[in-house]
Amino acid sequence: MDAGNGHHRLIPTDDLTGAERRELIESMTPEDAERVPELHEVEVPDDLREQIESAMGRYPQIRSASIPALWAVQRRYGWCTPDGIRQAAAVMGLTPAYLQSVASFYDLFHTRPEGTHRVLVCTNISCWLNGGDELLEAVCEATGADREGAAHGGASSADGEFYVQGFECLGACDMAPMASVDERYLGPLELGDADAIATALRAGEEPLPDKHLFRRPAAGGPEPEPDERVKKAESNA
Amino acid sequence: MPETRVLFRNIDEPGLASIETYRRRGGYEALRHAFTGVDPDELLWQLESSDLRGRGGAGFAMGKKAGFLPRGEMEKYLCCNADESEPGTFKDRELMQKNPHLLVEGCLIASLAVGARYAFIFIRGEYWEVADVIEAAVSEAYEAGFAGEDILGTRCDVDVVVHRGAGAYICGEETALLDSLEGKRGNPRLKPPFPAIQGLYGGPTLINNVETLMNVPLIATRGADWFKDFGSEQSAGTKVVSVSGCVERPGNYEIELGIPSREIIYDLAGGPPEGREVKAWFPGGSSAPVLTAEDLDLPYTFEAMADAGSMLGSGAIIVADETVSIPELALRTARFYQHESCGKCTPCREGTNWTVKMLERVASGEATPMDLDIIASVQENIIGNCLCVLGDAMAMPVGSMVKKFRSEFDEAIEANREPAGSGGEAEHAGGGVLA
User: Which of A190, A188, A182 is nearest to A207 (CA)?
Assistant: First the structure.
């Protein structure tokens, strides 16, 4: 607030350890403000703590582990629960509010409970031109998720089995229309595939293995005769 | 005209994603050559004289950008932008999934060239299964002694870290990517300072796209002249082009830059379904102003696309045939940017929002021809007025659609209008706003 009076102090917080950071923040924080939770105040499951600490160790600065930590929380609890965020905050030496603000920015983090199986149906241009909207409708029909809700930010089915969301371009327009089903890319999908996906997920089976991204060869087909310049470079190597 | 496969050479060879197969094909020889036999300055010079331009969208000279980083001992970073989110673009996904070691090798050589201690591969969270492939490749590179500490006994250390995003188009913008990588919300930063001077954690940072970095090992071993032998004067090399939309054989095709666009769309991707014509096409992702059938014979190069008022961008061609409604295409395009705007700058946050509302008026028949003028002027007021180009990325294609297909918008307004009455009122309201 008093920048300009010559006494403004810059503190290089990025170089601090978790404990130093906690101490510094508390020294500057009004009493009624949210604190960085102490590790002994919060029960953090060992595996979650290990995952977060291992992520913190991968980066020169620990705050970079925010997104990996939130992924770990979401994997463990199904969504970014307030308790999970508090646990991650305690491990990282950040406030829960900070991690909450990060979680709320990104589309793949859920800040409320959602259905177990996540079906993201691409409705961006190339999929739309190939029936993406109709596919989304078929997936809603097959899973029981609300059509309007799914098209506007996502909706879960009443039985809690499915979460369906009309999604932005997933980077797989070659297999349009497509969907990401529990993080596996499937396409091109026909409307009838929606039922097959829902049935397989309910049965705990892998849906439509033949339509998985990794089964797709390059669009250009068999390897063409190499260009002369490529051939020459390869023979020199 | 067949493909000219360089990065895509034998891309479907079984086991290519493993280090054994990759090395059998000569993989990591470029790394050995670069780390043990070449001065980093020589490497930089090779990159610069190869005229390799960035493959992510902006098309900036890669070697020149690398040369902007200060020399000497300091904490420097390399970031590989694998946040491929530009609608229509899916080349990096296939390249990473099928040939991950080429990327890892490229990151390591580029790190050596600029003196970076860390190389981060920022991959979009949606590509979870592809990130698994990259992570496995990175582990193999560590085990083989190609990454980590004391690489090949040279006392040179480079750590490679795979960082998974969590779903935000804006993180493909380089400064938002840096904020996200620092564990923050992905908001763009003011430039200057540019990342080459002050980037990740405040240190000099080189940020390059996946495909750009994959060209690096080839240039390091085969030389700049070999690379420049492909393509046109201002667009050297080959390019993996993602073709999708209304075409019979959508997919990635590697072409020599400079071949006619028509050959990519028709000969390689099969063109629109039988009996239909191309009406509009995005030459470089949905952020590129649309071109029409008249532009199909232009050579596919950075310069020809720019001269035609568009851009080669990420090299993603989206084709719309004659059955596609351009006003609906404009709405679909605008909604994407509205959703993805981070909200930091007013022209983008409000401009994308109001553009969507006005295009919805066109669709619901409430619009008047005056709305089209307002849409056009909103686009003009977004361009160049924000911290990053996300707003421009909507304004350019939407503006181009209104301009080139104005009559179709007029017809849509008429066709969608409710019978008698409501139209007049809407017109009056529109006039009031302007008066």
Answer: A182
Q: What tens digit of pLDDT does each residue of B27-51 get?
A: 999 999 999 989 999 999 999 999 9
Residue B396: both structure tokens together? 């350019």
Q: Hey, are the CB atoms on A168 and B339 less than 8 Å from each other?
A: yes
Q: Is A30 on the interface with B (CB under 8 A)?
A: no
Those residues whose C-beta lies under 8 Å from the C-beta of residue A103, and which sit 6 or more positions away, are A70, A80, A85, A109, A111
Angle at B12 between CA B10 and CA B17, to 5 degrees: 100
- Strand, helix or coil at B234? coil
> Residue A10: pLDDT band by 50, 70, 90 thresholds?
low
Subunit contact A108:B125, Cβ cutoff 8 A: yes
Q: Does the CB of B343 have a partner CB in chain A at under 8 Å?
A: no
CB proximity B281 to A under 8 Å: no
Could you tell me if A61 lies within 8 Å of chain B, comparing CB atoms? yes
Cis peptide before B193 (omega within 30 of 0): yes
- pLDDT, mean over chain A: 93
Closest CA to A122 of A174, A87, A79: A174
- Note if the bond before B217 is cis, omega within 30 degrees: no
d(CA B354, CA A19): 47
- What pTM does this model have? 0.93
- Between CA A93 and CA A115 the distance in angstroms is 31
Structure tokens at B283: 């030459």
Q: What are phi and psi of B162, to 5 degrees?
A: -90, 120
How far, in Å, CA of B321 to CA of A126, rounded? Answer: 12
The percentage of chain B sitting over the pLDDT mark of 70, rounded to a whole number, equals: 96
In angstroms, the Cα distances linking B364 to B210, B268, B350, B413 are: 42, 38, 21, 8
- Order of strands across the sheet that contains B77-82: B159-164, B118-123, B77-82, B205-209
Q: Answer yes or no: are the C-beta atoms of B340 and B390 closer than 8 Å.
A: yes
Distance CA B186, CA B173 (A): 9
Model ipTM value: 0.93
Which of A98, A126, A212, A236 would best serve as a mutation to test chain B binding (most B beta carbons within 10 A)? A126
Q: Are B352 and B338 in contact (CB under 8 A)?
A: yes
CB proximity list for B3: less than 8 A, separation 6 or greater: A220, A224, B253, B254, B255, B268
Q: Which 144-173 residues of chain A touch chain B by CB within 8 A?
A: 167-173
Q: How far is B284 from chain A (nearest CA, A)?
A: 13
Contact A128, A151 (CB under 8 A): no
Which tokens sit at A154? 């996502």
